Amino acid sequence: MNKKQKINLIRIIVSAALLLILHFLPIHGVLRFISYLVPYFIIGYDVLLKAYKGIKNKQPFDESLLMAIATIGAIALALYEDGDYVEAIAVMLFYQVGEWFQSYAVGKSRKNIAELMDICPDVAFIEGENGEKEEVDPDDVEIGSIIIVSPGEKIPLDGVVVEGNSSLDTAALTGESLPRDVKENDEVVSGCININGVLKIKTTKEFGESTASKVLEMIEDASSRKSKSEDFITKFARVYTPIVVYSAIALAIIPPTILLILGQGMTYPTWIYRALTFLIISCPCALVVSIPLSFFAGIGAASRAGVLVKGSSFLEILSKTETIVFDKTGTLTKGVFDVTDIHPDLISKEELLHLAAHVERFSSHPIAVSLKNAFGNEADGCTVSDVEEISGRGVTAIVNGKKVYVGNTKLMDDIGAKWSECKGDFGTIVHVAIDGIYAGHILVSDVIKDSSIGLVKELKKYGIKKTVMLTGDKENVASKVAKTIGIDEYHSELLPQDKVSRVEQILSERTDSTRVVAFVGDGINDAPVLSRADIGIAMGAMGSDAAIEAADVVLMDDDPKKIVTAIRGSRKCLRIVYENIYFAIGIKILFLILGAFGIANMWGAVFADVGVAVLCILNAIRCLLWK
Predict the structure, then answer these.
(1) How far apart are the C-alpha atoms of 88 and 232, rounded to whole Å?
(2) How far is CA 342 from CA 339, 422, 441, in A?
(3) Residue 447 and residue 464: Cα distance in Å, rounded?
(4) What is the Cα gyration radius of the chain?
(5) Is the C-alpha dihedral spanning 219, 223, 226, 227 positive or negative?
(6) pLDDT over 90 for what percent of the chain?
């Protein structure tokens, strides 16, 4: 609770206490009137001041003006009739209770998000000339610097581990409670908490471009991007408020005038009271507060789950998604090559991998890296010399006195080695020959993510009608991946511009523009199509900066199943928004009619205004419970 909330709570308690005391004091006339004005001004001075400023700035039509007119009018009627002031002051008191509750709810959700997103450390520690830790501002750390992160500290900048191993708490970024183990040469991102070992990290980005800074920037920008529902409520309030003010004036004047002409006597006080009740009921604060709060809470809960939504407008669009188009590499697959099978002819599997890894020892090609990672024992005493790379063919080298050839079928044909077709799974085939004699081949594949299996089935549960995969990979690879995952439709061997054309074709083929098409990608070549789709979803952990910038939603841990989480949560949020809209408008219309006919009094008006607002806020807070 902040200072302002504490002061307002004290005002509420003091006013309620004075109201209770005055109720039992035997005072009358002017003294009674002046006595009741004390708690009224204590509880309502800020509302009256806001109403005055609104009139002065020629923007009078808001809930402050409605409350000011209604309560001042009720006090005037009580003075005229020497009646009860309690009802009028209680209306202002309960209005302030509702306002305090709204302020507390918004403040709490903001605090939750602030705590959740408190991922940027204020300091970084660099390695000094003597190897000691020196404290510096993260903004002053240049790319390529060595920073030291001790256990319990947050990683201040993105980089690569150059020394040490540890476990990282990534919950603030990814929503995952399971720690991630890192070692030398692993990439790490800012915002993660180092759990146990000391890490030395070589920075790859400046502080302003690091993941934690980007995440905070996205969260801050999100609040400025309003959804259609929020825009509707804003426009609705602008039109609705003057209408109800003029309606209340008409209700106070026209019916009693007609009754007076018809000889029914002076009924102006009765109709003025009804008009004042009408004004209180009509306050739109339930909608004006609860709808933005619902979206704000939804975005905060999504962030906690590792899904960054860049604005409430995108949360609303996401909830209407019916078609999802996927990139393949790095999105549905890991985007890194692994050795998935070994088929030897003359030698053992271990020896075949051993020779291939040593020939590729000095190459940085992804396939070479996968071979070296699979073997893992470079320092085994083998001698490697005369390494020669043959463009478009492969690599040759002398390993322990034997000429070893590692490459494609063209290289095998060049040396006359009779190679055999791979009968295994899909992927890239690496053939190996020793002294011109074929020794076997190794299958290297881009492995499908575990979380991609069953993804389509989960998406179908939540109303996704069509899934499409676009890839620049070969037909046989694309076919295998699509079939394994269960994708409805796929297109292979596409260039970046081809992906855009395919998405445009999908957009043009839909019969209704409200049927949202989402694109999920991670590479720099996906940025154009991420922007072109109705909503772009990027992989945040391994995705390119261009893709993350172009996307509307970012999945911080590269888990495709977080798409299901995002869609399910966005639909829950929108369902709560519509529940509040229908409930608030429905109750207000009912009580406006009852108030106009004199059935609902001031206490009914308090429920229709403050009570409905509190109920809508409580409902909106359910958006925080996004699992």
Answers:
(1) 32
(2) 8, 10, 6
(3) 25
(4) 34
(5) positive
(6) 17
Q: What are phi and psi of 351, to 5 degrees?
A: -70, -35
Q: Which two tokens stand for residue 223?
A: 């609040």
Answer whether residue 75 shows pLDDT above 70: yes
For residue 154, the cross-strand partners are 193
Q: One of 62, 158, 327, 558 is an active-site residue; which one?
A: 327
Q: Token pair for residue 472?
A: 């620049």
Q: Is the pLDDT of residue 461 over 80?
A: yes
Token couple for 301: 């809960």
3 state SS of 216: helix
Q: Does the model's pTM come out above 0.70?
A: no
What does 51-71 look like in DSSP terms, one character per residue? HHHHHHTT---SHHHHHHHHH
Q: Within 10 Å of residue 23's Cβ, how many Cβ atoms?
A: 11
pLDDT per residue over 496-505, tens digit each?
778 888 999 9
Tokens for 171, please give them.
């919950």
Greatest CA separation found in the chain? 122
473: left (phi over 0), alpha (psi -120 to 50) or beta: beta
Question: Which is higher by pLDDT, 261 or 108?
Answer: 261
Q: Residue 362: helix, strand or coil by DSSP?
A: coil
Place of tokens 């790859």: 204
Q: How far apart are CA 452 and CA 487, in angstroms?
A: 10
Rounded to 5°, angle at Cα 270 from 30 and 608: 95
Please give the full DSSP string across 232-284, using - where no structure is assigned: HHHHHHHHHHHHHHHHHHHHHHHHHHHHHHTT----HHHHHHHHHHHHHHH--
Q: Which two tokens stand for residue 540?
A: 């945040």
Do 516 and 321 contact (CB within 8 A), yes or no?
A: yes
Q: Residue 24: count other Cβ atoms within 10 Å of its Cβ.
A: 6
For residue 397, the one-letter residue type is: A
Q: What is the set of domains in the chain, with CATH numbers?
A: 124-153+157-206 (2.70.150.10), 308-333+449-561 (3.40.50.1000), 334-447 (3.40.1110.10)
pLDDT given for residue 171 in this prediction: 63
The beta-strand segments (E) located in 357-409 are: 384-390, 394-399, 402-407
Q: Which of 341-345, 373-377, 460-464, 561-565 has the lowest mean pLDDT?
A: 373-377
- The tally of CA atoms less than 13 A away on the side-chain side of residue 573 is 36
327 is catalytic: yes
- pLDDT category of residue 379 using cuts at 50, 70 and 90: low
CA 339 distance to own-chain centroid: 36
191 vs 149: CA distance, rounded Å: 12
